[in-house]
Design brief:
Elements lengths: L4 H24 L4 H22 L1 H5 L3 H24 L5 H8 L2 H13 L5 H18 L7 H27 L5 H22 L9 H25 L5 H8 L2 H12 L6 H33 L1
Length: 300
């Protein structure tokens, strides 16, 4: 059953809230980024097994081309986690979030080149407003050193990787179920990340129970109710719309940090959060109105 426009909006909001917990859990953990990413995805894949078993016919029905594209999607998801989560060790949180928030622009450009998707001008006004808002939310702690520059490069590469992952997913989800798509992609990404840890001698299992609890939280909250939910929504809305919604993640993270980590919230973050939410709603409404107008013209 296809969700209504209001249903899509509510599910996007749920996914953004779930994503917002990711930074909190990472902050609580002392494990390397590559380990956090590996277990975040591997535990999610394990949680999915009962549903994958029920849809096992979908796995056997995949073509060779499907497997190649699924593997590429998983590969780029692993690069996204590796690059972006590692960037926090080199640059400020602000820089890491700002570069990641370029993803909607990258997705929009990629969708135009790959799928000939076009967007109304009023949608880009909403995108611009949301980008300004997120800039205010995470701004204020930029540093200009070679180390920080490397972190910025890693964050930008993470944005490029997740944009490619989302574009591949938008195409694949038109003919592959969300369960099959997500499971294969998560398993491929897990294998890539596990291989990285083995090659560079990063221990995968020698962590205390508290860390394993954080690994599970990363799997259960931002991955199941974030990535998995967004993968399902790819069949009903465009990748750029999902990435626009994700611009609300810094707002949620700041509010959660104030609640769970006792971090102060300043006025510019409150203003930026409001602008981000207005811009996201503006973009989604403009895009939905454009799609409806297109359907009317086609019917006429």
């Amino acid at each position: 059953m296809n969700p209504s426009r209001a249903g899509v909006f509510l599910l996007l909001a749920l996914g953004v809230v779930a994503f917002s917990f990711s930074g909190i859990f990472i902050k609580w953990s002392s494990a390397p980024a590559s380990v956090l990413a590996t277990h975040r995805l591997s535990l999610t894949a394990l949680l999915m097994l009962p549903w994958v078993w029920r849809e096992r016919a979908g796995l056997t029905g995949l073509t060779g081309k499907d497997w190649v594209r699924l593997s590429l999607s998983g590969f780029f998801l692993s690069l996204h986690f590796l690059f972006w989560m590692s960037s926090f060790h080199y640059t400020s949180v602000a820089s890491a979030m700002i570069f990641l928030n370029l993803t909607p622009l990258l997705v929009a450009a990629g969708a135009f080149l790959m799928f000939k998707e076009k967007y109304p001008a009023r949608a880009f006004w909403g995108m611009g407003l949301a980008l300004v808002g997120t800039g205010l939310v995470v701004g204020g702690d930029f540093t200009w050193t070679l180390t920080a520059l490397w972190g910025d490069v890693l964050s930008f590469l993470g944005a490029v990787a997740v944009a490619i992952h989302m574009l591949l997913g938008q195409n694949l989800r038109q003919r592959i179920s969300s369960t099959v798509y997500s499971f294969v992609v998560f398993v491929v990404a897990t294998l890539v990340l596990a291989g990285y840890n083995v090659v560079f001698g990063v221990p995968l299992f020698s962590y205390p129970a508290e860390e394993w609890g954080i690994f599970f939280l990363l799997a259960a909250v931002p991955t199941v109710f974030g990535h998995l939910l967004f993968n399902w929504l790819l069949k009903f809305t465009k990748a750029v719309t999902i990435q626009m919604a994700v611009l609300g993640e810094p707002v949620g993270t700041v509010l959660l940090a104030a609640w769970l980590l006792d971090e102060a919230v300043i006025w510019s973050q409150l203003v930026g959060g409001l602008l981000s939410i207005v811009g996201i709603v503006w973009f989604i409404r403009a895009q939905a109105r454009s799609e409806e107008d297109g359907k009317v013209q086609t019917a006429a």
